[in-house]
Amino acid sequence: xxxxxxxxxxxxxxxxxxxxxxxxxxxxxxxxxxxxxxxxxxxxxxxxxxxxxxxxxxxxxxxxxxxxxxxxxxxxxxxxxxxxxxxxxxxxxxxxxxxxxxxxxxxxxxxxxxxxxxxxxxxxxxxxxxxxxxxxxxxxxxxxxxxxxxxxxxxxxxxxxxxxxxxxxxxxxxxxxxxxxxxxxxxxxxxxxxxxxxxxxxxxxxxxxxxxxxxxxxxxxxxxxxxxxxxxxxxxxxxxxxxxxxxxxxxxxxxxxxxxxxxxxxxxxxxxxxxxxxxxxxxxxxxxxxxxxxxxxxxxxxxxxxxxxxxxxxxxxxxxxxxxxxxxxxxxxxxxxxxxxxxxxxxxxxxxxxxxxxxxxxxxxxxxxxxxxxxxxxxxxxxxxxxxxx
Length: 390
Known about the structure:
- The chain is an all-alpha fold.
- The protein folds into two domains: 1-61, no CATH class; 90-389, no CATH class.
- 71% of the residues lie in helices and 1% in strands.
- The longest helix has 31 residues, at 295-325.
């Protein structure tokens, strides 16, 4: 009887728990706290946090691979998170479906009304490439053990686009997926804290007070033609970016064409919500103690913050330049919305603008570069996949 009780105790998670697993369970609970109490990207930080807790419970086998005998018969099924990760994230399925849903929720109108904002979305991607160079240098000098593929995956954090970061990391650096995903979504949630100091430091009060002219109306025909043209052009010139942009534009086309409202509604609501749950649990499965608790994770978090900050600054500086060269006034604050954190970055630009001028409403103007940033980050991801992964 005593030996049976002892064996039962040895099977408990308490007996098998290691210090690293305990730390990761606490980190998972911290993500849950930030999601519930602080409202930081709750739709993803909550399932990521729970996924981190589950995968670090010893003996639960949530990430265990299936076991087969010599005849090929399964003797032990795999864990839930194993199937979620390999079926939806490793294949790239979940990020692409989410991109389709985001496209169905996106209005290209502000960007089409002022096409110059495409330049701001492009400028904000400079943070991605600058960080890739920085990560490569850290690897070259032996400070961090980052390969070129790792550096490319880390750099995408600067685009502030979670699905894109996950999609690229799953292909170029799957061992770093957990840290990259947590960094990407954490910085997206912290946009209201990170961006304003950079925006104020690079602009004067007079620049922040600039009022922009009202945007022209955009026709339905323009909104239908644009996603089709973008998909074809990107697919022809940069095929590696076609999956991301193709699904994004397909979702947007469903929204704008007006003949598949049921499909558009499903993509915007039920489908994206279901996939978001599984995506979070799948990302959480990569937050095991052996994958996350190392010096590389600290390096990824630091480089991700640098990438995001450089992207914000690049967008603001490009907008300042455009304001000087353009006949029409351009408020430099909208350049900060060139990162892909839709619509948070646009709201932050509007808020900082209102602080300088109570009559200065920049939200719709900022949505142009914000949407352009989504396109820019997808193109940057395609460049990385083509250059590094090819």
